Write a sequence for this structure.
């Protein structure tokens, strides 16, 4: 746990919470869909690659909160079962990467990087999210009234302007409630030191569908490859 460094941050978060079931802008809202038998994610902004939506938060850039954020939160839209455990799984996205990094200094989505995002999960221990490794963890347990609302803490290991950019990862929610399956994945993007327009552009580069010209080129290449294979087969007959 990061109690020494982030006791102030946790105090600020606690001060902002006026009700365990109050809605907070930007939270990942969810509910059990008993017809589909799975967790349904609500809200967020639309995404078109790997997930249907994304959520965002801003990492601190100075002082005790440098590289740290306790958002977004996770909130049940409707009460769930008392004591139900809500957890998460992390999923691979572009090129099999788990942690995606859009570098603010080069204005590019890096295909290779060594950044580490530490996730302080409920209970003992924490999880290091990197380009090549994901994992899973516990967010929290529902209180007796079922009004679930909890947060995870995120901390970058590499701080300073050289590491400014957008950090994105795919996450899904899980539960131990009977007959309720894992949610579909959704994106979480953390802004470290980027202006809002630049951050929006970074998110778009990861979540948007390829431009039509790119799709056409890929399709032409696939057709050309198929035509070449047919010719090779014909020449062998």
């Amino acid at each position: 746990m990061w109690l020494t460094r982030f006791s102030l941050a946790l105090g600020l978060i606690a001060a902002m919470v006026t009700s365990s079931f109050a809605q907070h802008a930007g939270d990942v809202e969810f509910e059990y869909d008993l017809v589909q038998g799975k967790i349904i994610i609500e809200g967020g902004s639309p995404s078109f690659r790997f997930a249907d939506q994304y959520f965002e938060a801003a990492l601190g850039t100075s002082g005790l909160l440098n590289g740290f954020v306790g958002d977004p939160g996770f909130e049940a839209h409707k009460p769930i079962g008392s004591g139900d455990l809500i957890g998460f799984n992390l999923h691979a996205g572009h090129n099999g990467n788990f942690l995606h990094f859009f570098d603010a200094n080069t204005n590019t989505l890096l295909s290779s990087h060594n950044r580490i995002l530490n996730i302080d999960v409920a209970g003992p221990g924490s999880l290091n999210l990197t380009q090549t490794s994901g994992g899973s963890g516990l967010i929290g347990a529902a209180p007796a009234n079922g009004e679930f609302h909890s947060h995870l803490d995120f901390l970058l290991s590499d701080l300073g302007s050289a590491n400014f950019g957008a950090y994105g990862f795919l996450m899904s929610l899980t539960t131990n409630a009977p007959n309720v399956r894992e949610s579909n994945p959704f994106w979480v993007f953390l802004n470290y030191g980027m202006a809002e327009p630049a951050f929006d552009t970074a998110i778009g580069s990861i979540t948007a569908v390829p431009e039509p010209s790119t799709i056409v080129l890929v399709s032409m290449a696939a057709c050309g490859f198929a035509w070449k294979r047919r010719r090779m087969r014909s020449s062998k007959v």
